[in-house]
Amino acid sequence: MCIASKFVNTLGVPTSHSYFEEKLPRERAHYSKQTFDQMVIVDRWGKLEVSGHAYRHTYDLERHILFSKADLYALRQLKTPKIIKKVDIKYDKDSILKIFGSKAGEVFKALSSISKDDLLVVINSSQADSIVLNNIVIPKNVFNVIETEEKQWIEKFIPSVSEPSFGAERLMYIVLEYAYEEQEGRIVLRFPARIAPIKVAITPLVDREPLKQFAKKIYEILKEHYYVMYIEGGTIGKKYALADELGIPFVITIDYDSVSNNDATVRERDTRKQIRVPIKDILNVVNLGLNNHDIFNIGYPVIEHYG
Description:
By secondary structure, this protein is an alpha+beta fold.
């Protein structure tokens, strides 16, 4: 469940806004020995179940083994051996032939009809010097009970099953709820960079040449690595607003200085801060940003944003 918490946290839900709720025995499925629902605090309903975690124990494989008769056991190496005590039982054929003569065949038939474990139970439960099998009285002294000890380094077991079950639509809902924000009359989707559908946008400061041609050149380079969007039309402020509304973490802007200096600005969605980066370093900077590194502390000059 720790992994489930980390997973929901990577979707943008603060750790303090999710918790696990244990289900009562009557609320659990018949195959579950323990079940927890993962809850996320939401505005509309107060809380929303996003996943269920059932401890199915050995129920699944036990049923498969029962009906398929297949060996579905797992093996594991033990750090220290288990001492296994074994009890075997044998009978003296010569003694049986000597005692029963022509009827010895009936005795052997009776002995072959019972398992060694059951025979041992019969012998141990009898207080007399003989046992009775198929109405035949057999002396105990024809049997030899042998006890041995064996070191077992390999353990055979039925694996338990833990079943996490997530609802895709509910995960999408909490992603949108925790990402959505209205800021100065603008809608911003603060998707975590790892799950943002569009990773980066490219735009010219104004839709004129040679800025457009330069911007499309960068677009062609980055689209080999990410889902990239080329934005044109309107002022730079409207372009940034569109990118924010789509939840795009980074916008690369080409201005007139870019053409002469072979560089561009990289704008971060949540802070609106920008750095000026040489074109040859753009891919590396975007990679760092998408992996949650602070790109404003890696040595590139921070500049004023356009809007």
